[in-house]
Amino acid sequence: MTSFIPPGPEIRRLFHSFEHTAYRLEARDHYDAGYENESMRRFLAGEPDDLPWMRTWLDMLREVTAKGRRFARVRVVSLPLNDYSRFGVWCAQFTNGAGEDIRYLTSDQADAVDLPRHDYWLFDSRKLVRMLFDDNDVFLGGEVVDDADEIVKHNYWRDAAWHHAMRRDDFAIGQHLGRV
Questions:
Q1: Residue 11 pLDDT > 70, yes or no?
Q2: Which CATH superfamily is domain 2-174 in?
Q3: Which residue ranges does the record assign to the DUF6879 domain (predicted)?
Q4: Rounded distance, CA 84 to CA 131, Å?
């Protein structure tokens, strides 16, 4: 059985209600959230930015990780990196600094270990939320999946991705990404 969670307060509650770990696999090369467009423009132009759209997320990360909970994420990226992925690597320094551990895996590496091509959150290794997007990369909401076999499979994929992924700083250096 599955249920749908629309974007908004119900999804946000998941980030405050887990007990131990929240893990995300990001399998897309681009996301259109809209709110970060000005920051990405500034990044590409080499202009300074204080990332106002990210403050709530960073505050939440600090609050939740101060309580001993763990946020981890693996981003699957194509090489060479597109502008959006370069911007994401730059932004990851701030989320990592706030307590989230973001790592990187190339698409070729992800294919070699048969990772899925969909995004998901896994909370406490037992609550699976598959992220849904439209054809324009806009987030539509999450599908809560209750099937035990699917949850086990996504835990396996989490472990495989984490094992092969590279820490953000090492990845940035390895890609010779100037200002990131």
A1: yes
A2: Endonuclease Chain A (3.30.870.10)
A3: 10-172
A4: 19
